[in-house]
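batch job 7 of whatever, protein = RpiR family transcriptional regulator
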Amino acid sequence: MSPLVKIRSERDQMSAVERRIADFILENAQLLRDYSSQQLANALGISQSSVVKFTQKLGFKGYPDLKYSVGEAIARNGGDAAQAAASPAGAADETADGLWRRKCAAEEETRLINRPETLRSVAEAIDRAGRQGRVFLLGMGDDDIHVRAFALRLAMLGILPVYSFDMVRMTTNVASAQSGDVLVVVSEFGSHVTLGRIARQFRERRGTLVTVTRHTANPLRAMADVALVVSAHDERPYIQSLLYQSATQHLLDRLFVLLCEGHDDRHAQLLVNLERIQHVLEP
């Protein structure tokens, strides 16, 4: 596992001091090679021993071992871009092979960060709410695309979701939520005020709030009963957004598969609906 992925996956279990070190490394990975353990400690206003203990807790022999491992990971990720820049043909290869590899890496990082038991608990909560209550789905902008597709997949399993791109309507819908209902909010940065208000309103109704956001500290993630997170990092903003979209879709697809494979009646309903759709689409 990449050292940066390992740091991201274990950040939530770290102490306050350890999280400060982790965040500094994640945000300044390219510069880490220029920092000694003492310089890193000085930059954060902590003791050098705290830096050493942090690296050992992650399973490294010491700070130089961590720094070397991070440097290797950055070199591997940067190799594709450097090769692409060497020639026009290389640029085309980057668009295909390089982007594919980065998407695979983002999906793999996201899989490692979200524990299987956490994903299963979300699937079970959605299944229970689909039988005894209601499943609310919420997203805005590009995230709404994922929410809309997930709503269709749930409907095909016999789980009728409460979904609308109209935030006023969703506010009204959530006002009738009850204990046992589930709200799934997909929000890349988890900081949109409107989504936060609706989520808070839902929590007041004692429903289960599930959030899907980037693997960063954000208001939505902080108030969630279950927080699913997406890891998607690249220096180029236009690539980073593609990685986020791909990893988010993969995460929701995993939830859908768990709902299909864990419940025979849901799977049977899916097959019936697929056949009905096929009849509609046939000329």
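notes: The chain has 13 helices and five strands.
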